[in-house]
Amino acid sequence: MWKRSISSSLTPEIHLLQTSRCLSCQFRTTTTLSHLRAFPSLRTYATKNTPKPKDAAPIPGAPVRRPVQFESNPTLKRTVQPGDEEFIPPTLDRPIGTAAPPEAGENTGVDHRSIRQRRDEFVDYDRHIKRRKELTRQVAKPYFREWSNLRFQEGKTFKSNPRLFRADKALYFPNIHGVTLASPKDPQDTTPILEGKITVVNLFSSVWAEGQVNTFTGAPLNPKLAAVLENGGSMVQRLDINLEENRMKAWLVKRFMWRMRQKLPEPQHSRYFLVQKGFTELLKEAVGMMNSKVGYVYLVDDACRIRWAGSGPAEAEELETLNNGLQKLIAEKKASLQAEQARR
């Protein structure tokens, strides 16, 4: 309630603030204190609650108030995340990739906008809100989370799909722009290389990830796949994409490209890409690259659609599905070519 200060009847008797002395000194005088003791202040700090009778009948229709109890739900468990000891990689049960078909010249990382376009986007409030959410998500991502996720399952994000995705349901592998071993100074696009051929794509960003993709496509560990690639002729190929967003690491890779040219056969030089920019977080999430320190393998058909995908170290069942899927795509490609020749 409101507090009542000194009674107004003291105003004519106590002449405050009419001298040069401060208010604190005036209250210390005997005259002022005597007046204050004679007229005590009437201050009411709280009103006493009138007790309700215990046998009072409840009002019909009134809501019944129950005490709120805050208890932890024992049945609610924290979702297991990659990097946890009890984490089991899920099986890939849906297509991954981009919804739009890729085109050469996309995702180059180079800004080709005009000054007018930059100005219009600079004053676009909705674009700023969207960019703010992206930056917030990047800042909230722990720096060592990807490294800590390698403790268990060797960083495996998901298990490969047991069978190929249907062609009419599969999504597309995005265009990636970077230099190759054959043209270290002239960047190329991956889409012209993927179109018209069945491709086994290796995507990695470190030596650890490169060792993981070799468990899928390496000749010593998967000789059956190497034989299929060799016997497939011009219909099948292998594409390696080394993603190095760190400028210093990319500079070191470029310095030792001559050694990689010696290790790889000459036809493979134009199919080994070094990518530094353009492969954004949205594209990584689209192709299932949730951990950049892990290697990923994709089986892409002649229309740039992802029909199969694997991550981390290969398992026996995954090698079998990869080899069988590649053979199936080759058989479909041969059947389509024969049908075209019959029409002519």
From TrEMBL:
<protein>
    <submittedName>
        <fullName>Uncharacterized protein</fullName>
    </submittedName>
</protein>
<dbReference type="InterPro" id="IPR007849">
    <property type="entry name" value="ATP10"/>
</dbReference>
<dbReference type="GO" id="GO:0005743">
    <property type="term" value="C:mitochondrial inner membrane"/>
</dbReference>
<feature type="region of interest" description="Disordered">
    <location>
        <begin position="46"/>
        <end position="67"/>
    </location>
</feature>
<dbReference type="Pfam" id="PF05176">
    <property type="entry name" value="ATP-synt_10"/>
</dbReference>
<dbReference type="GO" id="GO:0033615">
    <property type="term" value="P:mitochondrial proton-transporting ATP synthase complex assembly"/>
</dbReference>
